[in-house]
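note to self: the first set is below, dont mix up w the second
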Amino acid sequence: MPARFLVSALFFGLLLTALLGFSAGPRPASPPATISLRINGLPIATDTLGSRIFVGTNHTLRLNIIRANDPDGEGLTILIDRFPLTPGTYAFQEILSGHNRDASYRYQQVAAYSKSCPDNPGLVKITAVDTVRKVLTGSYHCQVCESGRGARRFTMTGAFSFPYEEE
């Protein structure tokens, strides 16, 4: 009789563990946060601690990508004002339709904006949204033009799989 009780208790314990979602092995770790930046094709190291992705309660998306060699700087900021938190492509040309979609870049003395370019092709492509872990995966491409002197054009590209913060 005690052996039968022990087997029943062990079976019940295993069943309860399975129902509650506990596993005997380690859980898979979340993939590391990655965010990249290329300026005119040259890779630039990014600061993953200082970089941020914000999703606003008013359906805005703001990517703020900080350079590793300028952690206190502004880096590249991309704003999408109508973001439904779903995969899709959000193009900068829609600035002309009244949407507020823009990119700006600041590094030391350089200040450049997508609105300063006569042609400002840019897009953010979201390929995956993980609302449980709050991670966005995608890529971006934009052109920004230096304001004021020089009027240099910079092409900014990159990819990310990065946690987002709600604001």
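second set (the one i keep forgetting abt)
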Amino acid sequence: MEARSIFRNISPIDHRYSISEQELFDALTPWISEEAAVASCIKAEVALMVAHLSMRGQLTPELRETLEKAGASVDPAEVYAEEEKTRHNIRALVNVLKTKVPADTAPLVHLGATSVDILDTALSYRMKGVTYEVVLPLLRKLELLLCDFAEKEAETPQVGRTHGQHAVPVTVGFALAEYVSRLGKSILEIERLASGLKGKLAGAVGAYNATTMIVRDPEELERIYLAGLGLEPSEHSTQLVEPEYLLRLLLEFNVAFGIIANLADDLRNLQRTEIGELREGFGADQVGSSTMPQKRNPWNSEHVKSLWKAFMPRTMTFFMDQISEHQRDLSNSASQRFTADYVAGFCLAVSRMKGVVEGLGVDRERLLYNLRGGTGTEASGRGSGIAGGVMAEPAYILLAETGVSDAHEVIRRITLAAEKDGISFAEALAKEPEVLERIGGKMAELGLTASSGEALAFFREPERYSGLAAKKAKALAAKYRNLMAGSCARPSAE
């Protein structure tokens, strides 16, 4: 077939990303390219021949090797040329393969199978392969990087945020441990679902009509056929494998995709000039803007979010491919081919996020500045804009513990006074000696301070109020690092 310049390809996956992500592109090609689609169908046809010969007691190691070599010699261009005549992709593939195998085995090519016995089985084989060989290793690398980062920054103070407003203190490691936990669970689920992908050799309507004419035990023939491809039979087939096996795997891909997009959003927002707590790596020759030389944009995080926007809506097609009339119609024939694009887009986003986390920097001074409300006296914000305002919660809790029923309102009035007078929360609290004394006494009683007189120092240093953030970050990093070490081994095809 005629070769063409890579820049004449239509999909950006096949020009822009195949160049910038060459290693990933090369890893995906054996599984989700058109060449891989043809090769996997050939592999399924050879596996069917091997199963027939095995059932007949005629299979030898030499004959298996001959058949496998014959299958490997098929050029996709030959199949496409033959399809111009047959107008049927699998019949074209069968016709070509028959010319490659020994003449006495040619009658076994496609014997007892319908097209989808080959197509759905080959698709399951490829999706299982790409998941174990590309998707899971890529996700695992990202997860381990997140584990390392969460552990490293487990005790680095950071202000927590809800609704985009300062809440109470956490740590950087704790904030990233959210994604360690969410992505880790999704990785394990992807692995489970990939291991459960099914194939079939049940014929035109799934009732084994054709194979009952060939062998006494059609289900045994099916098991042997599928075992050669590392698969098991679908519990019930029409002409199609039950679509939910693949659907659930693709939906879990999308769950992981959403988690990564959420992480990308958090990271890029924390790089805003007015926040400036984190920063992406930036090369010495890298340019942030064509007109503003000072710009260092969080473009990789933005790129991940953009890929999610492009590919997430395709899950609607996955749901629509779930429906086929009676035993089968062809309404999924074209749409299902674009599953490859989705897998590629997902992997590109994971790869890009891996690079972001690898180069992620932390500005500890800025983190502490923001946590302590360094802009509080200049800010016109309300409540959380007060320097040290994040410490209103422990003040309220401690005061309530002393028996003050309207403690929340008491502390709220102190925050309003701090805002009105342009002072820090600790300074406003110091102006309420009776409240401070009660709080200090409770702190001493709980062993939080050596004496009640030390209470004010606690409210000046919000980094001391971070609950179990550091402990949780370390525990989750350790848990998922261990889980990743025990996962992602591809089941044997035997």
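remember for set 2: Residues 373-460 form one domain.
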